[in-house]
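ESCALATION

Customer reports they have been waiting on this structure for their group meeting. Please prioritize. Original submission:
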Amino acid sequence: MLTDFGEKIFKRRIKKPKFLDYPLRSLKYLLLGFFLYSIFVAMSVTAIKVFLDSDYNKVADIKMFYFFAEISRFSFIVIAALFFLSIIFRGFWCRYLCPYGALLGIASLFSPNKITRNVNSCTDCGLCTKVCPSFIIVQKMKTVISDECTTCLNCVDVCPVKDTLHLQTVIMKKKFNKKYLAIAIVAIFIIITGIGMLTGNWQNNITKEEYLHHQRLLDSYGHPTDSKGLEELESRNGE
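Update from on-call: job pushed to the front of the queue and completed.
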């Protein structure tokens, strides 16, 4: 929405040159690699358990609330900068800095469905490339394979020639109706959350009284993996 607003102001889409775009896109993968290393390599199983059971983690949601409710000047400046950069450059945070976006990008490469172009009926009008929010040159691809493709289907919707662009299963090589894709996404969400609710793993087991107790001590809780927290984790590992 921010970039749509920006495009109305500037009357065009602003795209960074490749020598800037590619290095910036790598930042989110570096951040993802850092988090994966910190969790799966640097921390032992015991250390992870101590973190999950820590008082800090029990009220991490409250600390996050106060982060925004009592936002610092530095944090406000950073968020404001990301806000204005997103007006100029589409999906600035997601495209360059979000580690979760990097994880989704990797997962998208293994998607069972891909957008496929029929080269015989394609007129090379370029509308698909023009509407792609990730700046993928769809009109030059037979099968769209990109970590930036979110399967938004904008290219499919804008194509003037029927069935020239369509969603196709990777294994069966058959057209996959986009309506079924929407149904499948909703079904997967309901099934996963439903299993979590039925097995009692959806809500945490922290009582209201425990929340109120921790809230009074909130300012004294630091991240368990800072220098002081690491010493505590190491001592518990020794035990």
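Sent to customer with the following note: The chain has a mean pLDDT of 88.
Escalation resolved.
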